[in-house]
Amino acid sequence: MKKITPFISQHEALTVLDNGGRFYNLITKANDGEINSAELSKVAGVISDKQQMSLFLELSLSKLSSNSKRDIYNSLSDELKKAQTEYAAQYLLPSEAKEKGILSQNAIISGIPKYVESNSNFSGFVMIPIMTGNVMTFTMIPIIDRYDVYEVRDRISSEAFLIAHTKSDDKLPERMITFGGILKELKNKKDESAPSSIFLEAYYYLQS
């Protein structure tokens, strides 16, 4: 999970984003007035994943005025403008994410995270792909075996929503954090017929 420091001005954003891409992007030019996927990919730290790139852009522009955001979005290539529309993030409270969150879509959720320390405190499972010979199959494993998992709450309700990210030695502090990620399916292996729930697989975060 990557920490984002939002841009503080339109000039800074355009300077960083209109960067010419990586060294092998020979056609892309820096400071040409258009931000394309190669350039945004470089800053976001991903390769060809427009959903994550769109999420990064939304969070990195979060401190700018509406007019500045509009000007930057107008500088995007047609391909990125389409991606920003397709992957527009939901802004959700932890207390409403389970009911209003849309599976496989981007979401931005803020709250104070509390680390889930052991599997005895939690029983959620996720599906992961595995290769059996040349055949791709899926198996369920405890979410806590694959991710660092946090419970996040807001002031409206005591109900927790789960935020998960790739395991790391560094644990998040218990202070207000804004997470950006993709809503994924969470299953209950004890009762596979029970309705599944969702959690946020977080790729980026902002600290207040």
What tags apply to this protein structure?
globular; 7 helices; 208 residues; OB fold (Dihydrolipoamide Acetyltransferase, E2P); five-stranded mixed beta barrel; alpha/beta
Tally of separate domains = 2
The CATH architecture of the largest domain would be Beta Barrel
**Largest sheet entry:** 5 strands, mixed, barrel
CATH topology heading of the largest domain: OB fold (Dihydrolipoamide Acetyltransferase, E2P)
Secondary-structure-derived class: alpha/beta
Mean pLDDT: 88
* Outline: globular
Catalogue the unreliable spans: none
Order of helices and strands: EHHHHHEHEEEHEEEE
Task: Please list the strands of the largest sheet in the order they lie side by side.
Answer: 3-6-7-9-8
Number of DSSP strands? 9
Radius of gyration: 19 Å
Report the end-to-end length measured between terminal Cα atoms: 16 Å
CATH homologous superfamily heading of the largest domain:
Nucleic acid-binding proteins
Q: What percent of residues adopt helix (DSSP H or I)?
A: 25-40%
